[in-house]
Amino acid sequence: MSRSDEIGADEDILAALIEVSKTPEGRQGLSDVLADTLSLLPVSPSRLLLLRLRLLRNLLAGNEFNQLAFIESSGPSVVASSVLSFPSLAPDAARAALQALGNTALAGEFHRDAVWEALFPEVLGEFAGVRDTGVLDPLCMVLDTCCGGEGGRRRLDELCHEDLGLPILVQVVNTASQVEHKEEWLEWLLFKVCVEEEKFESLFNALCSTNDVECTDSGEYNAKHAFLLGTLSRCLNTHPKEVTVTDSFAHHVFDVHKHAAETVNFTHRGTSPLPTGRPAIDILGYTLQLLRDICAWESSSSETQGPVDSLLQTGLVKRLLKYLGELEPPSTIRKSMAGGQGDNHPALENAKVCPYIGYRRDLVAVIANCLHGRKKVQDEIRKLGGIMLLLQQCVIDEDNPYLREWGLLAIKNLLEENEENQKEVSELEMQEPVITPEIANIGLKVEIDKETGRPKLVNTSDT
């Protein structure tokens, strides 16, 4: 039998074993196969290596006996050295290897420590360099799993070390941004690193080195920065009750937002929602959305100050009202402005425009969440003269889906159980039938419901 025939026969046998190992009973019955498979890995040609890695992956899925035997046989080191022995790291082999190692790490602290010792940092760095979404997901699984449990904090500190682990995370974000990877293992890993362990600033700064050409495209920002913030925003938005936000992270996000607001050109109207593909604009938007969800967080204890309260002390509301006031009015109001001049009206000559679809809505959403149950914020907005500005947001805007809904929520939160604000709105109603001439032109006015004390928009043509 020729060598090719022998390999073909081995492939058939391995394919059959892989099929059997897909069930718990099959994995239990094939426990004796694990040691032989592991011993053959270093001498396996590429075709058989992949199949043997897949067999190991299956054998290690939830079977405690196989997982322990794998560790006692130095399995993590054998797998790593076998895969890396080839001139180029094949994505399929790397994926199967990482899946096997991830299944092992899930077994417990002893297993996680063994996997970490065998892989960190050199081997993990090699895997992170494979630009393939099929490799990235199990890599994030291994990293996230190893950074959990009893020894997780130590390993996480090593992963965030400037010289040892941080380059791995940078490579992960770089690869993920290029292949548009959006799986949960990546989200959990980055959220754990950046938010829960307060390493956001270190990773964010590391994404832009002096040799990175991309960093010159939009000030100091590049696509990796935008991808990182977008991933963190998505994780916080979809898992608000499963994550914890620290004051440090909240302040870093606000700082990045302020800097982005100074970088973005507000003279060019955006024609797409996030992501726009322009890093500075995407960062402006993602930081706003992060602030929106951070400010929706409520402390479970009256004695505990949440990140939103900490943010409010730094002038968050005043700055967002400033940004909102600098914008041109919503499209509905612009179209109705005196003389039918619309966007050519002299009052709009120096007004800023929304750099992406949804920017105005996101500003109003943050303010609305800050207002909820916070009399200090309600009073601050009144003293800053912001009531009329917020009332103007209770309209439909072509460039800001759901602006009206967020505007109404902001007004509801602004007036709720606040007699001073309710009185100011009532006095405005007494002075003129509507809040502004612009709103009058579109046939709307604001009234206070006598029974609920809440504002409502009324169509003047119906009265």
Automatic annotation (TrEMBL):
UniProt superkingdom: Eukaryota
State the PANTHER family in the record: ATAXIN-10 (PTHR13255)
Q: What is this protein called?
A: Ataxin-10 domain-containing protein
- Domain Ataxin-10: start-end pairs: 359-457
Q: Does the keyword Cell cycle apply?
A: yes
InterPro entries named in the record: ARM-like, ARM-type_fold, Ataxin-10/CTR86_families, Ataxin-10_domain
Which keywords annotate this record?
Answer: Cell cycle, Cell division
Q: Name one Pfam family in it.
A: Atx10homo_assoc
Q: Looking at the keywords, is GTP-binding present?
A: no
One GO biological process term: cell division
Looking up Gene3D superfamilies in the UniProt record yields: Leucine-rich Repeat Variant (1.25.10.10)
* Coiled-coil portions: none
